[in-house]
Design brief:
With 230 residues, the protein is mainly alpha-helical. It contains eleven helices and no strands. The chain has one domain. The longest helix has 26 residues. The radius of gyration is 17 Å and the shape is globular. The N terminus is likely disordered.
Length: 230
């Protein structure tokens, strides 16, 4: 998906992604949407969203013991976001050379670093993150959506979920990763700070990254019927 991982827009160009995301975050219902999605103050029988377990299942994909390898829990976590890794690829991730290749790359992708604070090289073309995404999307043909969600599970603070709903809502920049990083850093990090403040006001745990606050806000509010976008 070249639109996700190519070079970013020229310095000084206003961030289209930032402007669009601000529009979603400024809506009155955002905190309520976040609480509903992550089942804050709701019982299991209230019809919770499975995606609310994406980053928390089995303690998270970025916890120290498993941060640099894919596990069966990571594959189930991806399913909570309505995607399924093909069985041959899943087995290769867990037991085969694909898993070994990705483990090598994961060891060189920062953990515990927010995209807003990361160096531009962390998400640039040719970076370990880019190589991991390309390996999954191009060589193993899982598709750009699944590839992105698998990597977001392993590095939830650095790599965003980017699927058709987000693409429809926020646009198709030459590089979504780098464009979003730019948006988060504009105006002394105003957008990043707004996401953290929303997380706090909604009563979400700190294990929900700023990127996931943005993703869920867009997903819950996007007007496309059934989230079907052109």
């Amino acid at each position: 998906m070249n639109e996700q991982l190519a070079e970013s827009s020229p310095a000084g160009t206003p961030s289209v992604v930032g402007r669009r995301l601000h529009d979603f975050l400024d809506a009155e219902r955002v905190a309520d949407d976040l609480r509903r999605y992550f089942a804050i103050g709701r019982s299991p029988g209230d019809g919770v969203f499975t995606g609310g377990r994406f980053e928390h299942l089995a303690g998270g994909g970025d916890r120290r013991q498993v941060a640099n390898r894919f596990t069966a829990e990571d594959l189930i976590a991806a399913q909570t976001l309505s995607v399924t890794v093909p069985a041959p690829v899943a087995l290769d991730l867990l037991e085969g050379p694909l898993g070994a290749q990705l483990s090598h790359l994961l060891r060189n992708i920062p953990t515990g670093t927010d995209l807003a604070d990361a160096d531009a090289s962390a998400v640039a073309e040719g970076s370990p993150a880019y190589q991991a995404w390309t390996l999954l999307e191009n060589q193993h043909k899982v598709g750009w959506v699944i590839a992105g969600k698998l990597l977001a599970r392993k590095r939830p603070r650095l790599l965003p979920v980017y699927d058709r709903v987000v693409r429809c809502a926020l646009g198709r920049p030459l590089s979504f990763w780098t464009e979003l990083r730019t948006a988060l850093r504009e105006n002394d990090g105003a957008l990043h700070h707004q996401l953290i403040a929303l997380r706090q006001s909604a009563g979400l745990p700190q294990t929900v990254s700023a990127l996931r606050v943005a993703d869920v806000t867009v997903w819950m509010a996007h007007p496309a019927p059934g989230h079907r976008c052109p």
